[in-house]
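Q: What residues go here?
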């Protein structure tokens, strides 16, 4: 039985021992030890839809482009759209809002108790809707986001929520 020196107390200990009998420092890798966690990966980032969510408003802006006012409305609409995003990673869902000021809400998938989808008839036809998350941390919906294809987002989160 070969002996190794414990890095903490510097006493000789068997290399087969799980921990140093003198100070308790782990020596050998135990068979039930967990492998290191994989790094978090971004799976999906979505922005609020423009045309699919508001087709009448979109066509009205196109008509107003002939007058010149539509370009300003499109610009403001595009800025508002880019100022909000929903990011789904392998561990959490992140809602970011704001261009100049910033508001971030995160819900780890393991704490997501309820995922809500809300779609009107027209939203179902255009594959858009609102997705909401409840967690154990706060009562009520913690994240609510108007997104393209909310069913796909829910399936993606469920895959990692129940893993």
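A:
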């Amino acid at each position: 039985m070969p002996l190794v020196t414990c890095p903490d107390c510097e006493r000789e200990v068997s290399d087969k021992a799980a921990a140093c009998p003198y100070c308790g420092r782990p020596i050998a890798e135990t068979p039930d030890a967990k492998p290191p966690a994989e790094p978090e990966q971004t799976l999906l980032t979505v922005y609020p839809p423009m045309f699919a969510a508001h087709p009448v408003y979109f066509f009205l802006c196109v008509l107003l482009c002939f007058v010149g006012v539509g370009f300003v409305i499109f610009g403001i609409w595009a800025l508002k759209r880019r100022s909000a995003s929903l990011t789904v990673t392998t561990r959490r869902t992140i809602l970011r809002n704001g261009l100049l000021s910033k508001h971030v809400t995160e819900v780890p998938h393991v704490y997501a108790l309820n995922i809500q989808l809300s779609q009107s008839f027209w939203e179902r036809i255009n594959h858009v809707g609102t997705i909401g998350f409840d967690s154990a941390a706060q009562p009520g919906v913690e994240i609510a986001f108007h997104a393209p294809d909310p069913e796909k987002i829910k399936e993606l989160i469920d895959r990692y929520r129940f893993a």
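A: Context that may help when evaluating the design: The longest strand covers residues 128-135. The mean pLDDT is 83.
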